[in-house]
Amino acid sequence: MTTSRRKFLKQTASGALVLGLGQDVLAGEHTVPRAETSLRILILGGTTYLGPYQIKRALERGHEVTIFNRGRTVPTLFPEVFSKVEKLRGDRSGDLESLKGREWDAVIDNSATDPKWVRDAALLLKDSVGLYLFTSSTGVYYPYLAPAIDESTEVVTEHGPATGGADAYGVNKSLSEIEAREAFPDRAIIVRPHYIIGPGDPKDRLTYWVVRIDVGGEVLAPGDRDDPVQLIDVRDLTEWMIRLVENGDAGTYNATGPGSRLSSAEFVAGIRAITASEVSFTWVGTDFLVEHELPYMVPWVAPRGDMLGMSNISPARAIAKGLTYRPLAVTAYDNLKWWKEQPEERRAPLSDLPRQREKDALAAWHAREA
Amino acid sequence: MTTRREFLATTSAATAAVGLGAFNPSIAAGREIEKAKESLRILILGGSAFTGPFQIEYALQRGHEVTIFNRGRTEPTMNVELFDRVEKLVGDRADDLESLKGREWDAVIDNSASIPGWVRASAGLLKDSAETYLYTSSLSVHADFSKLGLTEDDPVGTIDDAAAEAVTTVQQITGENYGPLKARCEEEAKMAFPDRAIIVRPHLIVGPGDRSDRWTYWPVRIDRGGEVMAPGTPDDPTQYIDTRDLARFDVHLVETKAIGTYSAVGPLSRLSMGEMLYGIRAVVSNDVSFTWVDADFLAEHEVAPWGEMTAWLPPVGDTAGFAAFDNSRAVAAGLTFTPLAVTAKSTLDWWKAQPEERQASPRAGLAPDKETKVLEAWHARKSEG
User: Fold this and answer.
1) Phi first, then psi: what are they for A153, rounded to 5°?
2) pLDDT at A46
3) Could B2 and A36 be called an inter-chain contact, meaning their C-beta atoms sit closer than 8 Å?
4) What ipTM was predicted for this assembly?
């Protein structure tokens, strides 16, 4: 052999490896044209996940950005954009001093799970700001008892005794929405995202799947192949939020994706498509997963009981107002690329895939099948 | 506030950019490719059609010298600029090998013969002036596709001497005699180059530049969106080989002098039709849904497997093993695979860059009106229960 086997593998396998060959085709640089009018945008919160993307997009569009926070979180996503924004210090719970006497075209509120925070900020800003965009959540529909959900579906505004407190998040979000609408009648934009995923995700949701499938081997695929799943690429979400602000599109919107129904089988196969790994999927039924305390393998959630309609939330209204979607392969590819660039400490939570839990569940499933 | 028009321009530009990076089907795609230790002189018979331009690309990247031999009639449409960097010899496989005489090469890659007499002539001429001879055969050589896990050692189809010798023009090649003729060609190569012949048997070759439009049908159809008719069951297996993986493998085999016969089949592990179509869906963001129509119904409605429902044959009976080839020998020899999403995306981008007339008359796949009719019939039957 003229080339050593190892060297060849290094060379071509790293080529076939997603990050080499995919780059040119799947990812694309894009230039963002500037908006006609430059807006002054205030972002409450804004250092963790959505914020850096919103800032980046807003700056690309030629807007001026102010961020308001406690100054405690050191941004790790796009740290370079933070030198181009104005920083105001304060605290959502009790110190809004630095917001007084200022004017903005729009405020984006990412950081409230307490209705009082929204009330305080919205009341303070209602005469000095044009629009109030509140980042809510599809959690407002919890429990998801309707098989199909759109914005006309009633949201939960009172804690129900039956849910044992699981509804706290959704109730707080829906009460926060009310506060925003009351302070900004006809000027509030309420965005209810589903699972937000993509590069930078602090919760490792889609990251689990892209890393797991890239590792390869027998992969536990959850539920019925036809079960729907929903998610939203953080970039699709944040670019669209800036668009809503630019267009002054007040209203309430579900921000779910993709644009048409995606099944659990389509989801895992779509991720498989970005790797050249040896992969096989073993579909493990919902009953079994529930029995083995795996009712959530986000974005898959057993579509029953309180979670019945959780993955069937219509984005039609958002699409009509300009929400667009990256292809799943692009999201998955970018997510994996980002992950592989993270320092080892950051990658630690997924360094042990496949997890024992998955292996045990697969073994038990096969034992039962046999 | 932004106008609606400006908004549309902004978002569609963003969507386009996200979806469609600059079209670049190249093997390197921006990566550094390390030069081979030893520069080889490689002669490619053919070389201007589908896999040839990628063989040339990779061979040049690896630092080899490339000569191509053909009639000079096929204008390359892929990697066109690279053809300035190769030596061109003109002749004809059928009766004019003059320009190959008195020359030396380290390796010959024969892409362009399905006629045993052609291989006999070229291999016979080159046996003392070239070290190895790589013959691009086909998995069609197999005598029997009913078995799962076919390997390079399974029997090939046969044709008698007189019938084989009677074939002297490509017009005489049929679906029936193609496989046995390819098997004969393999024998001719091995006879002229004993222990120096490399036989590569690709599965369905796919990717940018494919002139058959077979596999291309799926990315193009799925990109059009709506209700897509899918054949058989989502669990039926499929196999194919990306032309760029094949090209790289060919050059690698020549570099490593890996004498032997190889099934060049991808992907690495079993891929179902469902996984393939869903994987292709992942490169577009259109509204898409799949309706799986069973094999019997397709047969009743004269929808052709392979020709119309491309990359698929019912995995039963005579074709049970057609998408279940064992690729382990090729993988051990260094065959690697491009991710499906990359194959799909670059095929789609290439297709969209073709002239309108070309796009208007694809050479394979199911016609849209026929798809609509069959789907209507399928739903009608389903609702009758």
Assistant:
1) -70, 135
2) 76
3) yes
4) 0.90
